[in-house]
Specification:
Two copies of one chain form a homodimer.
Chain A (H helix, E strand, L loop, with lengths): L16 H14 L12 H8 L3 H13 L3 E4 L3 E4 L12 H4 L16 E2 L12 H13 L3 H5 L8 H14 L6 E6 L1 H13 L5 E6 L3 H9 L3 E8 L2 E2 L1 H11 L3 E4 L13 H14 L2 E5 L15 H4 L5 E6 L11 E6 H15 L4 H12 L2 H27 L5 E3 L6 E5 L6 H9 L3 E2 L1 E2 L12 E5 L5 H21 L10 E3 L1
Parallel strand pairs in A: 3-14, 5-6, 5-8, 8-9, 9-10, 12-17
Antiparallel strand pairs in A: 1-2, 4-11, 6-7, 10-11, 12-13, 13-16, 15-16
Helix pairs in contact in A: 1-3, 2-3, 5-14, 8-9, 8-13, 10-11, 15-17, 16-17
């Protein structure tokens, strides 16, 4: 019996079965357990013995043949080849393609408590309701239209629903229109490309969402950072920047900003809108978190406060419903939406229509609102847990923000600690977070770090913050710095 | 009774109901039928009378308030305002945003026979099978995972399925990987951006898919056009370009190219691969039509012929299944897929997972293959109809390609006709197509035009080509050119 029939493959592995099989056979050949010139079992036979699809075995054989390890002869089967590489003149992809930019890369260690991912808790997804409403959408009379090529603006019924709601809220105005995007990320990408060519700068918050920084860098936008304080973007600094540098736009997240969780006060929102109106500045308002308010009073969006049409509002179902369904949208004056639709058509024609139809049912049925209510309740408990744990476990000298909603808060470690140094310590204990420099325009914020708590249980949050606090205290002790055991002051 | 209660709105209109309502009320105010200071009916009451949602009425009132036509007073209701515009300092979007590039814009006339859209026939969609398999996907054990944030590489089970099939076909090799994109269009966009920065040129076919031209222009790629002949890209011209200009890549559609329908012969495919290997040229192979072969023999992809890993293969479910579900993919050496995944993450994080799960079921169940078989049968009949109609109805001097599959063919009009001149004539008769200049790198091909026949019935095709042929003959007669009534020669 061939040694191939004794192979053990792991169907649960990330490596496809055919690759596992090819790798195993390749090792057998390497070790001489299957000799040069020996015939391999026919694909059908080996598939039967190993309990695999025949396609899987064929794919493995094809890979081995490609690698020059076996040779196929029509009608006779596959044979182990004499070793000898073919002459290859491969494309030099390193020089042909744009380099990858440095982004945050997890260590590869097993993470038990992941503060690095800003995403909702999958365990709370209302799967039964989703199933029921998705089936309704699939049974809907317009199924054939959903399957056919659509409009760059989005699936008509969802677009009308969202625009009407926004108009009723006072968020959409008479001259406004709406486009559906693949989540907020795509809206940021499309806007970065629309704003980029003119050469003027764009103001961003600092620290700011790393995905925005990278998108703007790719589009070669000139970035002007404005510091985020406990009350959101520093409006005095912003005004100074606008006055002296005449940027074309400000991109801002007024509510529960990622990564700080900071929220801009009503007074400062009014000042920002007034500034935009005075200087003809475009405002890009990232509003994906404002539904996730756990405490305090709801504030109006910049879009609502802005009667002049300077604001492009970005929203999404990803943070409040299902990130796996990529549906976000932008509301802005018609001229802006027309440009976005043109750019969207070049990028991917239009957004997937099935998920748009499903999410419309989910919203119209009231299930979305119920789910958001639940998320808010659970989010409030998570927020309480993370704030309590920070107070209790972070060493003296550490400071942290006190968000009233959203998914993340920001910790500043005391001197001489660095977030990267601390990360390597806590990764050993199964905890991860993203160090501050990835959120920094100038790669500063070495002592800052983002804690994303939106997807974790209270118990995980408590345990994770304790591990971070303990590791920080140990590092402080090890650096022989003066450690006091006073509770940490909140960076409110 | 208020004159508002007599308003008639059209629920079937493209204009949302709230806008129709606001427009109507605005007219009543304009005409003085509702006077300054008069109180409007409460939203609930008007909604009841007109049979609308209360939200719709609120949205209309909000729009009127925004326009300064009415004023709301908390607890007292809404009143018609004194006329007087607010001072607005709006952003100057024309100068803030990149200009829109010229693309083909339909005339706005009603189109009965649309040769301009390259999309499959919606009437042939297997809606019942889609519904059944979509429900299975929704009921699947991994529903919660589908709803959660996914990987930039795509939904794991689909990715494994596609990669394994491609390996079994000999299309994917040992060092290859796969990424799911939002149709082929997104793959083109991501690649354009990855290839753009290095400054070297990219060779494209001429004429070529207008969506590719625009994507490459947006990425500021330097384009080198190589003419498409009856046998696909002119490989002698290509070789000359590669030798003298040292481009970094060739983007090519070997089978049933859009817009010409031309297919590259096996011999020329081998020459192209050999050229790529000799010069380290990257090949981007757009392979979205090859399953739609109605005649002749299947040819291997460049990817299959290329053992050196110079080829990036692009495929999609859009043309062979449902364009409304945005699922395509790229297969290439791992280094390329890693860059694509990085670029994809910046563009929109990842593709929608629900449609990926549904299409996986559709493919695994065998329904996709059955649907493709049907599409091929119907496509063969359409192709026969369009070729016959071209022979019969096009005037002498016109030439046309003879594709063996795909969705489009190319007509060259005789001198002195132009495609744009002809289009304005046939649009009057309810027929549309896209003139050749939109497919031309240098805006040439004034006499060329694309006929997309993939979504039309045989009867529509016959009638449409007859209208085009008649209009061309009339224009020829009118220009006093010598018109012979010989049948047109095929541009084979």
């Amino acid at each position: 019996m061939s040694p191939l029939s004794r192979l053990n493959l792991d169907p649960a592995s990330d490596t496809p079965l055919y690759r596992q099989l090819a790798d195993e056979i390749s090792e057998l050949i390497e070790r001489g357990e299957v000799a040069s010139g020996e015939r391999l079992p026919p694909t059908r036979e080996l598939a039967g013995v190993l309990g695999l699809n025949r396609t899987t075995v064929s794919a493995a054989y094809a890979q081995l043949e490609e690698a020059g390890l076996i040779e196929g002869h029509v009608g006779r089967g596959s044979f182990v080849a004499q070793r000898g590489a073919k002459a290859h003149v491969a494309a030099d992809w390193e020089s042909l393609l744009a380099p990858m930019e440095e982004g945050f890369a997890p260590s590869g260690r097993k993470v038990e408590i992941n503060f690095a991912n800003s995403r909702p808790a999958g365990a709370s997804f209302p799967v039964a309701q989703f199933r029921r409403l998705a089936k309704q959408a699939i049974e809907g009379a317009d199924a054939a239209e959903i399957l056919q090529l659509g409009s760059p603006h989005g699936y008509g019924p969802l677009r009308r629903y969202l625009l009407e709601r926004a108009a009723a809220e006072g968020v959409a105005r008479a001259g406004d229109d709406l486009i559906v995007t693949n989540g907020c990320q795509q809206a940021l990408d499309l806007l970065a490309r629309l704003f980029a060519p003119a050469g003027n700068a764009i103001v961003v918050e600092d620290p700011v969402y790393h995905g925005l920084l990278r998108v703007l860098a790719r589009a070669q936008v000139n970035l002007l950072p404005a510091q985020v304080t406990e009350d959101g973007i520093d409006v005095d600094a912003l005004e100074e920047l606008v006055r002296t540098q005449r940027p074309r736009a400000l991109m801002v997240t007024p509510s529960f900003q990622n990564p700080t969780g900071a929220t801009i006060s009503l007074e400062n929102r009014e000042r920002i809108v007034e500034l935009a109106q005075r200087f003809g500045l475009a405002l890009v308002e990232n509003d994906i978190y404002s539904d996730l308010r756990y405490r305090g009073k709801t504030l109006p969006t910049l879009k609502e406060l802005d009667a002049t049409g300077n604001t492009i509002l970005l929203r999404s179902y990803s943070k409040v419903a299902f990130p796996g369904l990529r549906v976000g949208w932008a509301i802005a004056p018609r001229a802006v939406i027309a440009r976005l639709a043109d750019a969207k058509q070049l990028s991917d024609l239009h957004s997937d229509q099935l998920s748009q139809a499903v999410l419309l049912r989910f919203a119209e049925s009231g299930e979305l609102e119920k789910h958001i209510d639940r998320t808010r309740r659970e989010g409030g408990e998570r927020l309480e847990a993370v704030l309590t744990a920070c107070r209790k476990h972070l060493p003296a000298g550490a400071r942290f923000t006190r968000p009233e909603g959203g998914m993340s808060l920001w910790i500043e470690l005391p001197e001489p600690l660095t977030a990267e140094g601390l990360l390597s310590k806590v990764e050993e204990r199964g905890v991860s977070f993203v160090p501050g420099r990835y959120f920094s325009v100038r790669r500063a914020h070495a002592r800052g770090l983002r804690i994303s708590f939106g997807g974790l249980t209270q118990e995980e949050i408590r345990r994770g913050i304790r591990i971070i606090g303990d590791a920080a205290a140990e590092q402080l002790a090890a650096t022989a710095a003066q450690v006091s055991f006073e509770p940490a002051a909140a960076l409110v």
